[in-house]
Request: fold
Amino acid sequence: MPEKITVGTATAKRGELQKGVIKGIELNTTTSIDIPVLVMNGMKDGPTLLVVSTQHGIEIQGTEVVLRVMREKVDPKKLRGAIIGIPVENPLAYMHHQYLSWIDNLDLGGGGSGSLLTADKPNGTATERLAYALWQEAWSKADLVINIHCNTRPDSIIFQEINIGNPKTKEKMERMAKAFGVTTLVVNEPLKDDAPPILSNLVAKKGVPDLLMELIDGRWISEPSTTVGVRGVLNIMKAFDMIDGQIEPQQGIKIIPGPCKEWGIVRANRGGLIRFLKKPGEFMKKDEVFAEIYDLYGDVIERVKMPADGYTWAYPCGDILGTNTGLQAVQTGANVAYVLTQESK
Ligand SMILES: [Zn+2]
Reply:
């Protein structure tokens, strides 16, 4: 660990917690939109952990996780390594209560349904410049990344997703997921040489593992997301010997035994109101009916079935990625449910 670590305007010497900003962009009012950052430098050597939240502006549970870990739980005098905490990665999305940046409708992680945003454009649009600044100042300095997102509804299943297809990060990804201890979706996709330079691919190319965390009730700061998130981050720090202590198993939430695989999205074939007959996390057989779409006269017009043996983990309803809000009503093609299956042993 260097004597000091600098992220944006924050410089932390050994044993210090400091705050500052990563310089962002200017609005047409000349108002600066910068990204607040906390930096904690330990007394002894160890990895640099980056914990980011609110890449999507309506997913704020991770803000509290970052603050509790850095302001209450970890003592910089006892830390081995460093923590960089970014409570709100995309202030342009967050300030307008929107999933994406209001200014150019982009997702700074490169995901979502908008056009692909890469983090290699210092002269790009507003959100591209934020992504570039985040890469330069924070992501490129990390040895481990926890990227905290949320599903909207509180009845969703808390889960994490790891890609084990990159031999450079596989072992660390599995160690992080085991330590965090929630339902785990495993993806196995090799990282291609020509993979676009979005933030997650840039770190993957360096051999830095990037754990995607999905808490629940994303628009509020609430339990169980706070406790599960804080416990999971501290568990990862214990697993990588950054702090002392035993790994604490997660409790008080549904954990689907895994590894699990993402089946995909079940979409509506008819339009109307929708009612759900099963809860996320309840095991269902293929073809079991878990929701009904009914018209505005009250007649059921579609019974929505499970596409495979498995579970739903969230009901986004009409809340298609990139839109502002959900409604318990769907149109043809709307996302009804996210489905996962258990990998055959
Ligand atoms: Zn998200």
